[in-house]
Amino acid sequence: MKGGEKLGHPIQSALLVQSAVLVLLSLGAAPLHAQAPAAHHAACSAIAAAALPDAKILSAESTDAGPFSPGQPLPPSPAPAFCRVKVVLTPSADSDIQVEVWLPDAWNGKYLAIGIGGWGGFVPYPGMLDALRRGYATSGTDTGHRGNPGTADFALGHPEKLTDYAWRAVHEMTLQAKSLISAYYGSATRRSYFSGCSAGGKQGMMEAQRFPDDFDGLIVGSAASDWVGLNTGSLYNSLLNLPKDRPPILTPVQGALLHKAVVAQCDRLDGLEDGEVADPRVCKFNATSLLCKPGQPAEQCLTGEQTAVADKLYRAVRDPNTGHLIEPGFTPSSESGWGAVPVPMPPAVGYFKDVLFDNPNWDPYKFNLGLDYEVASRNDTISAINPDLSAFVAHGGKLLQYHGWSDPIIPTETAINYYESVVTQQHGLDKVSAFYKLYLVPGMGHCSGGYQVDWVGALDLWVEQGQSPEQVIGRRLPQVSTAAPGGGPQPEAESNAPTRPICAYPGVAHYTGRGSSDTAASFSCRVSARGPRPGDGPAVAIGVSKP
Ligand SMILES: [Ca+2]
What we know:
Blueprint: H1 9-25, H2 37-47, E1 55-63, E2 66-68, E3 77-79, E4 82-89, E5 97-104, E6 110-114, H3 125-133, E7 137-141, H4 159-185, E8 191-197, H5 199-210, E9 217-221, H6 227-241, H7 252-266, H8 304-314, E10 317-318, E11 325-327, H9 346-356, H10 369-378, H11 390-395, E12 398-404, H12 413-426, H13 429-433, E13 436-441, E14 451-452, H14 455-465, E15 471-476, E16 499-503, E17 507-511, E18 523-527
Parallel strand pairs: 6-7, 6-8, 8-9, 9-12, 12-13
Antiparallel strand pairs: 1-4, 2-3, 4-5, 5-7, 10-11, 14-15, 15-16, 17-18
Helix pairs in contact: 1-2, 1-4, 6-9, 6-10
This protein binds calcium ion.
């Protein structure tokens, strides 16, 4: 039974909490979210005294509407009145999972949980604030430890903390948050959603695969689902570019040159010259076209060594012993983010030294692609690439995934490969698109940039009203920016920014030839060729998480 050892939690803890709050609710006939502020203050104070199994409520404080800062270094920003509950969860003796549950006075009856990127280590406040402003009860967790999301040192000698990070913290948070919501408002949440990006996207995928009844809808962005493939590929690629004791071969200067050349060659292939490559898979770009000619200034071209690294980054990383796909190549148009890592990819180094080899002194320059990948695949508990979503389908869940075509951290085709693996498992695109949509966003980097889309609104309409989002409307963002892990703060698009349909895969937006190219109405979604690029092959069935 998946997570069966904790099935007693929601009802049991809801009863315990309710006993503390019930007396306050009985003061008025209306549900709490329709009552005056004083009732909220009293109910919030009462919840602090509630008893929870394997959990302790640290505090519950009423927060009035107005400028609110959840903690340093976030500056105050507008927030509605809410009850802020801090909880620590201890599902194992070594667990120390910090969770916050935020309960708005003006509740929309629904719950939206927020995921966290990298190796976690802090509560994802910006995404929670966004959920709160929309009227959702929300929660977030640091996944069981405090620290830098780029390091995995928390896992060294702490297998239970690794389990908390891998899947347990988000699941336990969800059970406890639902209990608190039910108890506080006197009625269960009508819908439960999750939104996360990068490792937060992986958390959403893990929920769909491992705890399919936790959520009615999931937003999965730029997902690091294949944790082993991603970390292996990231380390391999960063070492390609960072020979020992030498400066990086490719820097952002060459990244910008490559990107400009890609746009010059491939922009018009989608039928519209707009500075964007709508489907980079049709772009057959060769970095040697930028090879320096005699006398050409160095900042205008690439050396032979630089073109060789660039062409390798466009190609898939494969197991040298078996030929298995480890990580797909980066798409043409992702170059702007290349060469920005001055040391071997820190999260990937942390994975090998602190998680896999239990050796804080492990030298990344001793990395052996074939051998280390084999060890990692055998010991994987973190990846979420099981294509069997049948239990999530049976629950009636909806999965909305997005990935940027310009992602320089996680190759876009990892999302396509997983989607196609689900199509194979479910025997057909029609069946899958009824519950699972994938959007490939032009110009989007890792978790942000390109276009701004109201993913929460689209998911909610799909779940609540059955409006299938064959396309969503994107508002063009001023420039690609780097997002903070955990979903924010995100840049905002101008109110008069150009709009464009972002089509559900395998659709691609094509200009109809009529009307302004700055308006979504002038585009239609056309089905493109499906699947990965020739030669990349399907995702291999390794690292599948066993429930
Ligand atoms: Ca174009």
